[in-house]
Design a protein that fits this description.
Blueprint (H helix, E strand, L loop, with lengths): L1 H18 L7 E9 L7 H20 L4 E8 L11 H18 L2 E6 L10 H11 L3 E9 L3 E2 L1 H14 L12 E5 L18 E7 L1 H8 L7 H27 L2 E9 L7 H9 L8 H12 L20 H8 L5 H8 L5 E8 L4 H17 L5 E8 L7 E2 L9 E2 L5
Parallel strand pairs: 1-2, 2-3, 3-4, 4-6, 7-8, 9-10
Antiparallel strand pairs: 1-7, 4-5, 6-10, 11-12
Length: 409
């Protein structure tokens, strides 16, 4: 009887203690493993990464965190083609995709062409890759500090966007491709991710709801101080566990990408409006973007990747709604990126948008990435077939919200 009462007592104590801990206002968006494969046939390294990621995910979930995705990025594809053409590489990439689908792991192969290289066949190849795989992400670099603006690659990237828009419904193929501008290795977010060096991992976090909570109790005067204190308090345990995982499984820990990745139930638009008390796009939006970015780039944590503010239009219901209301333009999004990041992300554009126009957009993003030191930007553009400016579009992808096609001024 005593043991029974004691057990009941411990159970009640545990329930009461748990109830005193408020639910977390953030999620682990991704644990991303970066690997260096030996060649296109190296599925062994991929399978080892899958095993590691599953162990790491279990460690985080056992600690009370929700892990939304696990991901693998390799070094840039052109580095391990081994003399094969892109077409010859496609069957091997389909094998990577089969593993990824089986184990529910997203996969990134980095840049498919070397910096500032043009290949007239790459757009057609990209269409085949999108059509024949489900989880393979890829990119092309349009700028770097070493070579400046990559005008040849910009042309190839624009051709990919136009071609891939015609694959599948609603231009959604471009969800898996980006033009990356001055992006470093080790970004845990896709599609810009690529790896360099020893096997390692990084963490990305979804936390606009945490920003909203902090800003609901702050003003523009004390928001910076409040946000820094709260983010360090919340994310330090995430880092501590990552360090333990690194030691346990002998995988190098690269850090946390402190970009506040949004979701359909976690709006960065809501967070910014809570701070400014104005609709996103209005006066003080730029100030709020700058404030958030200043904080997340200067946290007392080991950081990596973008670590900048994300403003993905059709991944955020409030951003999409404000775009529908005409409260900001594509050019203004790029202006906000000048004080934050991460560029132009999932922007719905008219299906008839010309390749030349896409090239000019990429050139602007590339130029901005080189204006400031260590500015990592990317551009993911959705050309919607058959749609014109102002038309409403919906998507099959469950991570995207309905929106109107945006105008290019």
């Amino acid at each position: 009887m005593f043991r029974t009462l004691l057990s009941v007592g411990f159970l009640l104590f545990a329930l009461i203690s748990h109830s005193q801990n408020p639910p977390l206002l953030f999620k682990i968006r991704t644990i991303t493993a970066g690997i260096t494969v030996n060649d296109l046939s190296d599925t062994t390294s991929v399978l080892k990464a899958v095993q590691f990621l599953k162990q790491a995910r279990t460690d985080y979930t056992d600690a009370g965190y929700e892990v939304q995705t696990i991901r693998i990025s390799t070094q840039n594809l052109y580095e391990y083609l081994g003399g094969k053409t892109l077409d010859e590489a496609l069957p091997y990439l389909k094998k990577f995709d089969e593993i990824a689908r089986r184990d529910d792991v997203s996969f990134a192969i980095g840049a498919v062409l070397p910096p500032n290289e043009y290949n007239a066949a790459v757009a057609g190849w990209a269409s085949k890759l999108i059509g024949q795989t489900e989880l393979i992400n890829f990119s092309l670099p349009v700028s770097s500090t070493a070579l400046g603006i990559h005008r040849n690659t910009i042309k190839a990237a624009a051709e990919i966007v136009v071609a891939v828009a015609k694959v599948g419904k609603g231009g959604e193929g471009n969800f898996r491709f980006t033009a990356s501008a001055n992006c470093p290795a080790g970004i845990p977010f896709f599609p810009a991710a690529f790896h360099s060096g020893v096997n390692s991992f990084a963490v990305g976090i979804e936390y606009p709801n945490l920003l909203t909570e902090v800003f609901s109790k702050s003003t523009m005067v004390n928001a910076r101080e409040n946000l820094k204190a709260e983010l360090e308090k919340q994310f330090q345990p995430v880092q501590t566990l990552a360090t333990k995982i690194s030691a346990t499984y002998s995988w190098q820990y690269d850090g946390i990408d402190t970009s506040p990745a949004p979701g359909l139930d976690a709006s960065i638009g809501t967070a910014i409006e809570t701070l400014t008390k104005q609709p996103f796009g209005g006066p003080s939006t730029l100030s709020a973007c700058s404030l958030i970015t200043d904080v997340i780039k200067n946290l007392d944590l080991k950081t990596c990747g973008y670590s900048g503010l994300m403003l993905p239009v059709i991944e955020d219901k409030v951003l999409a709604q404000r775009a529908n209301e005409g409260r900001y333009t594509v050019q203004e999004l790029l202006l906000f990126s000048s004080v934050s990041g991460t560029g132009l992300d999932v922007i719905p554009l008219a299906g008839a948008t010309s390749q030349a126009t896409v090239e000019r957009i990429f050139t602007d993003v590339a130029s901005l990435s080189l204006k400031y030191t260590n500015k990592a930007l990317s551009a993911r553009l959705f050309l919607i077939p058959g749609k014109k400016v102002g038309d409403k579009v919906t998507f099959d992808n469950p991570y995207l919200t309905a929106a109107k096609v945006m105008r290019l001024e």
